[in-house]
Amino acid sequence: MRYKRIISAVFVLLLFVASAGAAVVSETLVQGIVRDSITLEGIPYASVSVRPGGKAVVADSRGLFSVVLDPGSSELRASSQGYAPKVVPVVESRINLYDIMLVPEAKELKELVVKKARYSKRNNPAVDFARKLKEKGAESDPRKKPDYSYDRYERIVLGLHDFDTTSQNVMMRKMPFLIEHVDTSEISGKPVLALSLKETAGTEFWRKNEHRSLLTGQRGAGVDEFIDGENMMTMLTEILREVDLYDSQIVLMKNNFVSPLSAAAPDFYRFYLVDSTAVVPDTEGPHIALAFYPRNKSSFCFTGHVYVPANDKTMPISRIDMHVPDDINLNFVKDLNIVQTYKRTPGGTRLKERDDMIMTLQAVPGTPEVYVSRKISYDNHSFEHSTIADSLFAKIGEKQVDREALDRDELFWANMRSGNEQAGENNTALLMERLCSKKVFYWGEKVLKVLVNGYITTGKDSKFDFGPVNTFASYNSFEGFRLRAGGMTTANLSKHIFGRGYLAYGFGDHKWKYSAEAEYSFNEKRYHAREWPIHSLRLSHRYDVDRLGSHYLYTNADNFVLSLSRLSDKHFSYRRDTELRYTLELRNNLSFGLTAAHSRQEASRWLSFIKGDGQVLDHFGETWFEAEIRYAPGEKFYQSGSYRIPVSADAPVFTLRHRFAAKGFAGTAFGINRTEISASKRFRMSFLGSLDLAAEGGHVWGETPFTELLIPNANLSYTIQPRSFALMNPMEFINSSYVGWHATWQLRGLIFNLIPGVKKLGLREVVSFNGMWGQLSKRNNPKYNPSLLVFPEECGDMKMDKPYMELSAGLDNIFRILRVDYVWRLSYRNVPYSIDRSGVRVALHFTF
How far apart are the C-alpha atoms of 133 and 128, rounded to whole Å? Predict the structure, then answer.
């Protein structure tokens, strides 16, 4: 499951809050309203800044605001276009509520006079200002320069928000040392118990929009320490992406946000010029403050301010303050705040200095809140030519890793930090040492490790892991109840030589199955053999059932979740494979695979091998060779011990595969000459959601038995499985040539967000359209070629005179975790055999 890594980390955090109650609210949080002194109505989107310090927030559509004061803050300054700004002193009290009255005045900004009127995007100086800001973006973009580099330090902290530090908390009574690790939330001012810290350091290089990065340091400590650090960082960086306001759409928390500076922004935002004399810390001169607010609070938009120097024709941004609306259709997120600061070069180029994102998450109301802080600092900006850059751009792959990146000492990280970090964050390693002595944490960690990784370790530095655990017990119509036990060796035994295998028994067919493999990795591995990038030689031998026409992409066929089937499948054979495979993966995500194998197909009690001339075969063998090329630029995935699950489908994936076997060579009963090609990609369409497209095709060039022909993947379970057909029977269509497609449109609440009442449910629409069209040549049809195997009963008899198509419409985000689709079979509905014409399919879908 794509998000099980993040969900499991949250579950770990919840172990510590079973008894957490209400926290003591800090007195540094102030709230109030900015009102018109004449009408007494709230002023929408007024700007409120703290002095000294310069922290600024934007009021909501009712004029309400809240802000956490920094130590030493003495004044609040409120302003809005058309009003005289007002400064009020900060008075310490238990209430900390402010009612700020602004006096209306005629205010001229350049040559345009702003008057209070009903909002319109036409003839609106704020809208014009936003458009000019977008147009000027390319002029101040440093990435357009011939050479540009900077150092980047990223710090991600996970913790418990609103942590009860009183003696009423059972945890505090049992573990009083927790008070030493409590920090303060930068959103609410409430106590935060930091439980995880992730740090990365490196240097980024740009040459006219071409990019290379050098990772010089990476480490982590905390409750998720038992989870693979590389996987965790991949998930977190994908979810907490850097925000570029100049992009037309902003991908954040796995969702598409409409950028305030996109061409479509005036249709989704209200823009206001709220201040022409704003002061931004560490910058010179007055700034213009542009406020933006979503027209529909449920849509994927932001609320905030952009500050631009008032008298600078290049219009470089100095500061961005923004957050998500309270009513947004965004799961688990209670608060999300983003602050970015920039400095200007003498030539007008904007250089980013900081990018801070702070949020609070909550699974369901009434449960504990999780605090997330992602801070990035940028330093040592340079436009000089670099020999380091020359070497990086000469290498394959966008990202390179320093050999010592995972072994940096404390002095290295002390030099990376700004010095403003809170104490609790820096002491997560010490906190872990203390927690590990507690039994509740010890056993909680063990259980979560099994759930997340799918394997059971055999010690602290495990040399052999049992698993995958989801295959230990399963059921299918052929084998009946099936038990399986297996595992794999780890890099703690050898960093280059690995082994894995399993032993299984079916109580229905009363047969033992097994698999064994040995692999030599030319690359030194951190834990297991499947880690990217692979450069290995693998020898394997396997004897098991072969579910013809029902193969799954991202899970094992004996996964217990697939045990409940919509119909009985009788297309099982026994297959014995011996393979030698060479794999080479390059850092630019281009990979090559070469395989030499001998396969032996054996008949079962339900599936016989009979040639067209009546000859019955108990088994037949094939010695085949296969070459595969795969290219997936920018691909990111979750690496389990057995599979790679895409973290994001944004990256295009192209695959070309050819398999060949010469009839009569090394016991080959039938020849194979088959080519397959596929391509897939997610297309993000801003407010329209995203469209996942996959196309595939194949052709068989010679005579081939039906076991090696092109058989579409039929999904027999009630779950939603990618790249499969939910209502097709196994081996219903057998082809020698075919093309297929899979399209899924995630609307992300595009319609439901516009319906009052319904939008409160947070439902999201999803539509899928899958299909394929193929043909069977006469030379591969046993009716015309008696030397081939006869097709099983009710298989491949239907001539495809039109495409096979399925359409589904569904509701996603039900209770925030469930997707339910209703699927229709659009073609081949009236056939002489039993089929499902429609049905319901479900999937657990954890997403933001």
Answer: 9
Using omega within 30 degrees of 0 as the cis cutoff, is the peptide bond preceding 142 cis? no
DSSP code for 70: P
Contacts of 260 (CB under 8 A, 6+ apart): 130, 245, 269, 271, 292, 301, 302, 304, 306, 322
Report how far Cα 133 is from the mean position of its chain's Cα atoms: 30
pLDDT (0 to 100) of residue 799: 80
Continuous H helices in 590-739 = none
Low-confidence ranges of the chain (pLDDT < 50): 1-27, 94, 106-116
- Residue 372 — left, alpha, or beta (φ > 0 → left; ψ -120 to 50 → alpha)? beta
- Count the Cβ atoms, other than its own, within 10 Å of residue 596: 13
Strand order in the sheet with 86-89: 56-58, 47-51, 75-79, 86-89
Instruction: Name the token pair of 67.
Output: 């802000």
The Cα–Cα gap between 769 and 742 comes to: 6
Q: Quick one: tokens of 495?
A: 């960093």
Residues 823-843 have pLDDT tens digits of 999 999 998 888 999 999 998
Strands (E) across 175-241 are located at 182-184, 191-207, 210-222
Q: H or E element: which one contains 7? A: helix 4-14
Tell me the per-residue pLDDT of 302-323, one tens digit each, with 9 for 90 and over: 988 899 988 888 889 999 989 8
| Angle in degrees, CA 764, 770, 773, rounded to 5 | 170
DSSP letter, residue 584: E
Show the 3-state SS of 386-430.
Answer: CHHHHHHHHCCCCEEECCCHHHCCHHHHHHHCCCCCCHHHHCHHH
Token pair for 557 = 């066929």
